[in-house]
From TrEMBL:
The protein's name: Glucanase
GO biological processes: cellulose catabolic process
Pfam family, one: Glyco_hydro_7
Encoding gene, per UniProt annotation: cbh I
Protein keywords: Carbohydrate metabolism, Cellulose degradation, Glycosidase, Hydrolase, Polysaccharide degradation, Signal
UniProt signal peptide: 1-19
Class of the enzyme per the UniProt entry, highest EC level: hydrolase
Amino acid sequence: MYQTSLLASLSFLLATSQAQQVGTQTAETHPKLTTQKCTTAGGCTDQSTSIVLDANWRWLHTVDGYTNCYTGQEWDTSICTDGKTCAEKCALDGADYESTYGISTSGNALTMNFVTKSSQTNIGGRVYLLAADSDDTYELFKLKNQEFTFDVDVSNLPCGLNGALYFSEMDSDGGLSKYTTNKAGAKYGTGYCDTQCPHDIKFINGEANVQNWTASSTDKNAGTGHYGSCCNEMDIWEANSQATAFTPHVCEAKVEGQYRCEGTECGDGDNRYGGVCDKDGCDFNSYRMGNETFYGSNGSTIDTTKKFTVVTQFITADNTATGALTEIRRKYVQNDVVIENSYADYETLSKFNSITDDFCAAQKTLSGDTNDFKTKGGIARMGESFERGMVLVMSVWDDHAANALWLDSSYPTDADASKPGVKRGPCSTSSGVPSDVEANDADSSVIYSNIRYGDIGSTFNKTA
Ligand SMILES: *[C@@H]1O[C@H](CO)[C@@H](O)[C@H](O)[C@H]1NC(C)=O
Ligand SMILES: *[C@@H]1O[C@H](CO)[C@@H](O)[C@H](O)[C@H]1NC(C)=O
Ligand SMILES: *[C@@H]1O[C@H](CO)[C@@H](O)[C@H](O)[C@H]1NC(C)=O
C-alpha cells in the first residue's frame, strides 16, 4: 500500500537529503491507552496498550514529494494509474491525533470528537487497539468463555451519531506479511474489514481500490471502489444517548480473517443476502425488543446522561475456551448497581435477554426478517472467529447510507411503526441526516474508558 511508500521514502531520505522530509512528515506516535487483563484468581493487571488511527483517514501523498495521491473523493489517476502502481508510488503519513482528528487519550480513557476543524475539517474517526508494548501489531482478542467490559459516556452523542466499540477479524499485522506491497501495516492502521464488506476502503490486499472508484453523492470525503473488504464482526456496542444495540454478524466459513470481495460476493444492493457475509446480524436493542424505558436520557433504567459500565459475556457450550460459542450476555453497572439486560417484551421472545441462535430465530420470525445470520453460520461461527482472534475497533460516525435510523428511529421509514421490530429508538425519522448533524452537532463526542477483559465475572464488582 501507501506503505511501499514508507520504506521507499525512508531509502529516499537516506539516499538524498534529509531536509526534504523534516517538518513536513508527521511522526506516527500512538496515543497510549491503558487496558486491563483480568483473572478470577489474580485480579486485574494493567497493560501498556495504545491506539492507532485507521489508514483511510490519513494523508496519502507521493513517495518522492508531497503531491496528494488522493484528495476528498478522488484519486490522482496520473499517479494512481492502477492499484499496484498506486501502492508503489504513494505513502501514508503519520497522524496528528488530537489537532487533526480530535482523538485523545488520558490514562485508560479515549475521547473521540465528531467534527474537528483544523486546516481541514475531519468527520468522525476509527481507531484500533495495538498490543501491549507494540507499535505494529493489533491486540488479538480471543473471548470464548471470557468477558469484555468497558465504561462509556454517550451523554454528548445525539440522534444520528453512532459511537461504536466492536471487534473485526482483521489480520493482526494489518495484512503486512500476507501482502508484500503493504509496507505500512498495523502501525498505520491498515487492513480494515467488516461484515458490510465496505467498498470505501482505499487500499485492500496491498493494492489501491482505484478501479471504478466512484465519488459518494453525500460524503465529500469518500467514494467506493470495485473491491470490498469483508470479515466477521462482533458489535459489542453501537449507540448514542437514545438507543443501543449489540450484534454479532458472521460470514461464510471460507471467510477466515480479512477477505477481499468483488461482484456478487460483496452482497451489494438487491443482492444483500447473496454475498459472503451477513449484513443484518442478530441484534439485541432493548427499545426494539419492546422496552422503551430501559435505555435513554429521560429517566431510563440506564441513564445515558451519565457514564456507565457495559459487560459482555461470551458463554460456550461446555464453559471452556474451546467449546462452541452458544450465548452472548449483557449486563450494565451504573451507580454501583449491576443491572441485567432487559428482557424482550414480546410474547414469543419474553424468555430472552441475551443473544442465542434461538433468540435470533424467534426475533427474525416476529419481525419478518430474513435469518441470514443463521444461513451464514450463526453464533457458533462468531465463536470460530473469536477462536482465531479479533481486533478491537473504536469509532464515532454518522451514516450516509441510512442516517443511523436502523439504530435509533423507526426503520424502514415506510414500514408501519406499530409492527414489531420497526421502532428501534425514539429519534425522529427525519433525524440523523449527515449534513444536519455535521452542522448542528459538530461538537459531539464519545468517551470509552477502563477497558478490561478476562475470566467471566472477573472484570466488574458483582456485589457493588
Ligand atoms: C466499471 O464501470 C464501468 C462503467 O461504469 C462498467 O461498465 C464496468 O463493468 C465496471 N467494471 C467493474 C470491474 O466493476
Ligand atoms: C420525558 O419523560 C416524561 C415522562 O414520561 C415525558 O412527559 C417527557 O415528554 C419526556 N421528555 C422528553 C424530552 O422526551
Ligand atoms: C424494562 O426493563 C426494566 C428493567 O429490566 C423493567 O423494570 C421494566 O419493567 C421493563 N419494561 C418493559 C415495558 O418491559
